[in-house]
């Protein structure tokens, strides 16, 4: 079977993984959606082998789970699990930012400013489909100067599990003005090299996002006994 022409630069498995990940994170494949290997292979015009390998990678990232009689499905997270992930984010990201701020170069600051400008424009234009990924990219650029690659890798994996919920939370709660304001305040503290202020603002920002998201999901989900 010949691979689709768009899968040419990296391995087929890499690109199937990236495409499926993007569709999960965007909400195109919602929680509980069954990912049928034969249907995906047919859609991408590839064999089932790279599809199976891609799903196994996404399982390792926590985005997919394998269930008896169903196969691979988009992972569902309980409210308790989402809260736990945000608490882990706060601990790790605050530590990354504490290491990053003193090391930030003018180029690092410019990179953060650039992505924030794109993010602001997506807010103003109401381009909801981009909010989750731009939010993740903004946070990622904040921490790149930390020189903590392993911690950053863990944070990115946690981000894969929360970005689709963050996007929904921003859309449902209407909290875009607050998020935009908090992002700029964090950046201002980074520019001023005020480590303690930047970390405090980040911790508050993650707490606010967690509370808003939990409130939105608690209101949207029926009671199923999976979360308190």
Automatic annotation (TrEMBL):
Residue intervals of the HTH gntR-type domain: 10-77
Which InterPro entries does this UniProt record tie to the protein? GntR_C, TF_FadR/GntR_C, Tscrpt_reg_HTH_GntR, WH-like_DNA-bd_sf, WH_DNA-bd_sf
Q: Name one GO molecular function term.
A: DNA binding
Q: CDD domains in the record, alphabetically? A: WHTH_GntR
Domain of life of the organism in this record? Bacteria
What keywords were assigned to this record?
A: DNA-binding, Transcription, Transcription regulation
Know the name of this protein?
A: GntR family transcriptional regulator
Q: What is the lineage of its organism?
A: Bacteria, Pseudomonadati, Pseudomonadota, Alphaproteobacteria, Rhodospirillales
